[in-house]
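hi! just following up on the protien thing from before. the input was this:
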Amino acid sequence: MNYNLGDILEDKGYIRGPFGSALKRGEMKEIGIPVYEQQNAIYNNREFRYFIDEEKYETLKRFTVKTNDLIISCSGTVGFVSLIEEDDVKGIISQALLILRPNINIVLPKFLKYYFSSKQGRSNLIERSIGSVQVNLAKRNIIESIQINLPSLSEQKKIVYYLDLLTDKLDLNNRIIKNSEEISQTLFKRWFIDFEFPNEEGFPYKSSGGKMVDSELGKIPMGWSIYNLNDFTQSISESINKKEVKFARFLNTSDISEGQVENVELSATEKMPGQAKKLIQNGDILYSEIRPKNKRYAYVNFNADEYVVSTKLMVLRVNEAIYSSKLLYLWLTMPSTVGELQQIAEDRSGTFPQITFSILANFKFAIPPKKILVELIKVLEGMHELQFELKRENRKLIELRDTLLPKVLSGEIEIPDECVVN
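and the predicted 3d structure came back as:
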């Protein structure tokens, strides 16, 4: 049955955040009652930067979030939604958020959340946004006129249960990926920077009295050598021959993020930017020259014969006889490295923070003999492969969810009765 959005909300269930003049930056505190911002809707997190005291809260308590509320980003980055759970802390929304308070006798809050997380639901919000410089959600009457096809509550319950299974699996995989990445970076630092790799008896080398020798990096283990990055890494920049290669998948900086490469369609090379680089290959590292802190980097662990990349992406290719591409990737993506590169990028003269291969080329590395390197890589490669396998699985789950979501929500696909939970 079709409903207008306004008809499935509680009375006074549409609450736009307070005007900026009602909640000034100078009134924010370091502790107190939290202020929910756009990032809490966009990233579905509960990390807070700003707080208000009880006195200020009393003047703004009508903007307090409640269990089962949907908070939606409505300025700039529009249309991202998060559901307020029972254990979420009491707080108020900022001016860049909207609260939708569902009438639970008509619609399950999670069902409505899944609807606005779908391509159709988010499009309904974005299409009603206004502004050319700063995009903002349209006025209340326009948003409340959005039509939603609602099945019965029992059918909604089945749909939510099914979609929760997919979401829970994605969340579990993401937690495992995050933990594995943190462990990998910890081990990399401990072994290749602190030199506490396992000695022949399995004890930490340096603290167990392993012999150290002087080098230009300070004390390093005996037998290790110092290399500049460009001693074992090339920056690939030869242009693709568009007459020979008619179709390819073009990756821009926006198509990679924190190790992930987006699925991009095959397109005619003659329509691609004239400066597109040559085809990349398995084992390459892609690293954005612009704003390192944005984490636009990826490790190519797939057959990349059909891919070309933007000139704003460095293509780093490691000589595996000396080092390991996976180890270089770990170094490049360590928070300390990203922070250092960002500072270098900001210090350069230019219109935006940028890092180039000529700067990376001069970084120095202490590299162990091949036998030790191979043994240490074995451990890290196992975690590396686990991370990429889970990321591949997540991509398939997301594709499945995004394909099924509109069909399930519209009733085109029915969920079996076995999925009903009491």
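Residues 10 and 73 are 20 Å apart (CA to CA).
Residues 370-410 form the longest helix (41 residues).
cheers
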